[in-house]
Amino acid sequence: MIGIVQDITERKKTEEKIQILANAVESSNDAIVTESLDGIITSWNKAAEQIYGYSAEEILGKDVSILEPDNIKGEIKSFSEKIKQGKKVQHYETLRLKKTAIL
């Protein structure tokens, strides 16, 4: 019989930090959305659900451009290009679309 002893202290600390950040995102009143570098929505918090009207199940895996109004199409892609180049995106105001209700 061979036994292996491994110190998992650092891994546990890292997991705790990740959980604290996840809790902060979920408890925020601000919509927090992440996307892949190719524009696919990868996370969507509860505030985003309330603000935009899409559940996480509906929106995850969709292209983020679904939230862009026609008059500013390409804005998100432009920001993604800056990020790919290592540039920072400063604070900015913009418009986004909510899910439309079908009556």
Topology:
Elements (H helix, E strand, L loop, with lengths): L8 H19 L5 E3 L5 E4 L1 H7 L3 H4 L15 H10 L19
Antiparallel strand pairs: 1-2
Would you write up a description of this structure?
This protein is mainly α. Helix content is 39%, strand content 7%. It is built from 4 helices and 2 strands. The chain has helices at residues 9-27, 46-52, 56-59, 75-84, and strands at 33-35, 41-44. It has a two-stranded antiparallel sheet with strand order 1-2. A hairpin with a 5-residue loop joins β1 and β2 (41-44). The longest helix has 19 residues, at 9-27. It is elongated. The protein starts with 8 loop residues before the first helix and ends in a 19-residue tail after the last helix. The model has no long low-confidence stretch (mean pLDDT 90).
Helix fraction bin: 25-40%
Sequence of strands across the biggest β-sheet: 1-2
Please mark out the parts with pLDDT under 50 across 5 or more consecutive residues, or reply none: none
Helix/strand order: HEEHHH
Question: How much strand?
Answer: 5-15%
Number of helices: 4
According to DSSP, the number of beta strands is 2
The quaternary structure here is single chain
Mean pLDDT: 90
Distance between the termini: 68 Å
- Quickly give the structural class: mainly alpha
Radius of gyration: 18 Å
Outline:
elongated
